[in-house]
Amino acid sequence: MEFQISPAGPWYHGSPFVLETLRAGSTVTQWRELAEAFSHKPAWLCCEDDGTIAHNGTEPGYLYAVDEPVEIGPDLFQHPRSSMERGLEFLTARPLRLRLLGKTKA
């Protein structure tokens, strides 16, 4: 599966916690469904070539969007130890304001 990054596009974070700010070093992605899956804290997660995601997470989760302008480089950088394809996981270089989009379904 090839995933195209849109630097000015939306960035998402999934968490089982209610948050207002994302800490530096946290993971973000532009793949909304991936953030939703991670919100359930799975022990394993698999992304298929057709874009489907399987996981074993069961915790209630929340989906967030980064609620301020960010740039790859000063604000976000490619996750250096990601087991996923390049471009799917980025880490935050500084705290970022979040906007709650809603609860996610496991």
Task: State the gist of this model.
With 106 residues, this protein is mainly β. The protein is 7% helix and 33% strand. The longest helix is centred in the N-terminal third of the chain and has 7 residues.
Q: In percent, how helical is the residue content?
A: under 10%
Q: In what range is the share of β-strand residues? A: 25-35%
Main β-sheet: number of strands, strand sense, barrel status?
Answer: 4 strands, antiparallel
Rg calculated over all Cα atoms? 13 Å
What is the string of helix and strand elements?
EEEHEEEEEE
Principal-axis shape equals globular
Structure, described:
The chain has 106 residues and is mainly β. It has one domain (12-104). 7% of the residues lie in helices and 33% in strands. The protein contains one helix and nine strands, in the order βββαββββββ. Strand 4 and strand 5 form a beta hairpin. The longest helix is centred in the N-terminal third of the chain and has 7 residues, at 32-38. The radius of gyration is 13 Å and the shape is globular. The model has no long low-confidence stretch (mean pLDDT 92).
